[in-house]
Design goal:
Elements (H helix, E strand, L loop, with lengths): L6 H4 L11 E4 L5 H12 L21 H13 L3 H8 L4 E6 L2 E8 L7 E6 L10 H8 L12 E6 L16 H15 L5 E5 L2 H12 L4 E6 L22 H15 L3 H8 L1 H8 L3 H15 L7 H4 L2 H12 L4 H4 L1 H9 L10 E9 L10 H4 L3 E8 L7 H4 L1 H15 L1
Parallel strand pairs: 4-5, 4-6, 6-7, 7-8, 8-9
Antiparallel strand pairs: 1-2, 2-3, 3-5
């Protein structure tokens, strides 16, 4: 591995420097970077966080006692090098797509004809959220399954997330969909493929289905980001001649969002203000990200610690810190406003086959099938018994099973 391909050097590369189509690399964060993060955690002044910060409920954010527990675990038990070794069990590459470099994982599946599958992550997580799904999806026979169900798994990092360098200007789901389609078709050679996404990944998947239907075999979603004409998501708006189901869902969705939208408004309107605040504060980044994981998980049947382990949570947090990409990751919220992709034109639909996995997401609920069908060609709708916004952690077996069943349904 040369210095030029070292992930710690990627963020310092001069813009416009030519690279090969695919450059392999391994993650190896310098010791001094880890030491700097550790020192900032150790020096945090907890004596200023007394009542009401000591409250045990999360209404106003992570309680100080919980944050102290997380940070103590971070300093004494969590091991980044273990997480790094796990990350490096798969092959990582950088792909140059136009003027954007994209970090990508590509695991070819078992058997003669594994189906290509693009997994697209969202915020506040990363490519790492799918690592433990790669082997079951790519090599089901190792888990008692059938080789004929194998996928060739592709996991890119969104621009400005993980080891994908920041874009030169904010890019949203429509532009990212174009970049990822070029990655799949021109770089990796897949003429047709399946796409899965939640959070921002759902918006990218929907833009792929809308603008690149010739290449999309089907899309599998755990969140619906695009709606029919007039029914902007999370606003309470409805389309022409709405029925009672649509009205009821739109009102419920808007009410949930009213109490949970503060983070998105800041990231969409004042991303630099937030970036300066977070750049040198690992504890601040941890609190900002942990609050979203807590608020968006399904905690109706189990505590947060059982839904998302501290090790997984800290690995997600660390991937924003060791790459210095917390700030750049917020720019997709700016681009969302610029692209205005959330509602379709009058009479327009996403006509590729769509599977919806309706989890118990407490903030971003899946619309009922009859509402989703106004904008999408829904061929499969599964009501999941448990799991919220992060099913890859909360109920990974059910997620992989639903993906396989959808692929079988498509034939």
């Amino acid at each position: 591995m040369t210095d030029a391909s070292h992930p710690a050097m990627i963020k310092h590369r001069a813009r416009g420097e030519a690279i090969m189509s695919l450059i392999p690399f391994r993650v190896n964060i310098p010791d001094e970077d880890l030491a700097r993060i550790g020192e900032r955690i150790k020096s945090f002044r907890w004596d200023h966080f007394l009542e009401p910060y000591e409250a045990t409920e999360w209404r106003y954010g992570p309680p100080a006692a919980w944050m102290r527990t997380l940070c103590n675990y971070w300093l004494t038990d969590y091991q980044w090098r273990d997480a790094e070794r796990n990350i490096n069990t798969v092959e990582h590459c950088l792909a140059k797509i136009g003027d954007q470099e994209i970090h990508v994982i590509h695991e070819r599946g078992s058997g003669a004809c594994p189906r290509p599958l693009l997994l697209v992550h969202g915020w506040p997580y990363s490519f790492a959220s799918y690592l433990h799904l790669i082997e079951p999806l790519a090599h089901p026979e190792r888990f008692g399954g059938n080789r004929d169900d194998a996928f060739s798994v592709v996991i890119p990092s969104l621009p400005g997330f993980g080891f994908s360098p920041p874009p030169v200007a904010p890019v949203g789901p429509r532009r990212i969909a174009s970049i990822f389609n070029q990655l799949m078709t021109d770089t990796l050679g897949y003429d047709e493929y399946l796409v899965h996404g939640g959070d921002w990944g759902s918006a990218v998947a929907e833009m792929l289905g809308l603008h690149h239907p010739a290449n999309i075999r089907g899309i599998h979603l755990t969140m619906l980001s695009v709606r029919h004409h007039g029914a902007a998501p999370r606003t309470g708006s409805v389309g022409a001649a709405p029925g009672p189901t649509e009205r009821s869902f739109a009102a419920r969705e808007a009410e949930l969002w009213k109490n949970e939208s503060a983070y998105a408004r800041i990231q969409a309107t004042k991303p630099l203000k937030l970036a300066y605040s977070m750049f040198d504060s690992p504890v601040g980044v941890a609190a900002w990200i942990a609050e979203a994981f807590h608020a968006w998980s399904d905690l109706s049947q189990r505590p947060f610690s059982d839904a998302i382990s501290m090790d997984r949570l800290l690995t997600e947090i660390m991937l924003y810190l060791v790459t210095d990409n917390f700030g750049p990751s917020t720019w997709i919220y700016v681009a969302e406003q610029l692209e205005g992709y959330q509602t379709l034109a009058q009479g327009q639909r996403i006509d590729v086959p769509v599977a919806l996995a309706a989890y118990r997401d407490p903030v971003f609920p899946m619309p009922p099938r009859e509402v989703a069908s106004l904008s999408h060609s829904v061929v499969r709708y599964t009501t999941m018994p448990t799991g919220g916004h992060f099913p890859f952690y909360e109920d990974p077996d059910a997620l992989t099973d639903d993906l396989r069943d959808f692929a079988r349904q498509l034939g």
